Amino acid sequence: MHSPRHTAASLHVATVVLVALACCSCAIRPLQGVLVPTNETVEAVSRVPILVATTRTRSSSDPGEMFSRELSNEIAFGQVTVSIPPDHARAVGEIQWPVTPPGDPRRDFVTASAEYLDRVGFGGAITTVAKAGHRSKAMVFVHGFNNRFDDAIYRFAQFVHDGRLPVVPVLFSWPSQGVASLSSYEYDRKVAMQSSAPLAQLLDTVNSNPSIKEITLVCHSMGCLVTLEALHMKASRGGTMPKLKNVALVAPDVEFDRFLSQVREMGARRPRIGLFLSQDDIALKISKSIWGGTTRVGDINPEEEPYKSEIAQQKILVFDLTHLGGDDSHSRAFDEVSTVMGMLERRLAQGQQLGDDTSRTASAR
């Protein structure tokens, strides 16, 4: 039952949350048909294959949606190839949605191909993409609140492309309602809590593929709740995923105490953890109000106690993105991916790995 303080806070932010908790840009986007493949072939575009595992049901109303916002009892699989226009025709960090699907590949993000897969076909697709791109590293991405399936596909493709990431991209999409409202936020959190076991199963599948030698797990916002639950579940049951080397938590909408407890309980054999935060994250400040003032991991000041000591003790590497600015403080890691990747490269060039000394937060210097 909600406390009076919780109820009052929820009522106070109910109208604001419609906008501020949106995890995607405010660009106008079509409501249907986005994932219907285009037949037009254009030179100089980039094509990013996204492998998909999801707990959403297949869409019965919109073939261009593929998967709906309804929860399925089983994991479903697919593959979507996203065509991204040439660099001179777009701004890095942005998704250029078509006004009317399927769009013009010269200036829009468009879907080049989309297909459903079974479990065996999904494993084969991982191998195919790995061999075609001469890649042995996989990146598994878990999206956050207020994400439709097509939102998550295009955002991940943008992130991989703009970051020039030499990985096999694997999306785990849980059934967010894709609506920015207070009731949808609370529903999404409930569904997110139910999605950790399927994510753990997906990680096992990727880990067992002989074409993959290393896995990086990236989560955003409420997706970090799913991620931490999955990792905690695996650790508590004695399960291991030796290929999972790094976990990047981007603007995690997770209570700090819960986060710290779960990281501790994962033990010393856990993967290296990197935390990407912004102290001016408006969305997380609203989330904090909704949950009665409980501190969120993604907007702490990592130089303040007790956060500084606790993070250092757990050997978590911190990247404070506050200084990057921009209109969307909750998604700036994706909008400013080139800068963020530069920060990572400089840290690694210094001989550090995720999980090394955290006495200093990362900067863009």
TrEMBL record:
Please report the name of this protein according to its UniProt entry: Esterase/lipase superfamily enzyme
The record lists the organism as Bradyrhizobium macuxiense
Q: State the taxonomy lineage.
A: Bacteria, Pseudomonadati, Pseudomonadota, Alphaproteobacteria, Hyphomicrobiales
